[in-house]
Amino acid sequence: MTLGVIFALAAGTYAMRLAGPLLRGRIQISERLEQLLSIAAIVLLGAFVATSTAFESGSFAGWARFAGVAVGGVLAWRRAPFVLVVAAAAATTALLRLTGLAG
C-alpha cells in the first residue's frame, strides 16, 4: 500500500468516528429505528461468526473449529469471564485437532 492510501483510510476512519458525536444532536432517529439498527448489528455479527466458523478458503473448516466456537458461545451465553471463553474455545479446538478429529 502506498502512503497516500494509508492516510486516506486513516482520514476516512477518523471522519466516520467523528460523525457520530457531531451528528447526534442534529439527526433525530426514532426509538424503533435505533432498536432495529441494534438488532441488525447483532445479526450481521452472527452471520460473520457463522461463516467464519464453517468455512475457510471456500471449503469446510472442520468440526474442531465448529466445536470450539460452540463451546465459546455457550460459555459466553452463560456469562463466563472472557478469558475463560477464549481459553476454553482454543483448548477445545486444539484438543480435537490433536486427536485427529479436526475433520
TrEMBL record:
Keywords of the record, alphabetical order, are: Membrane, Transmembrane, Transmembrane helix
List the taxonomic lineage.
Bacteria, Bacillati, Actinomycetota, Actinomycetes, Pseudonocardiales
Q: Which residue ranges run through the membrane?
A: 6-24, 36-54, 60-77, 82-102
Q: What is this protein called?
A: AzlD domain-containing protein
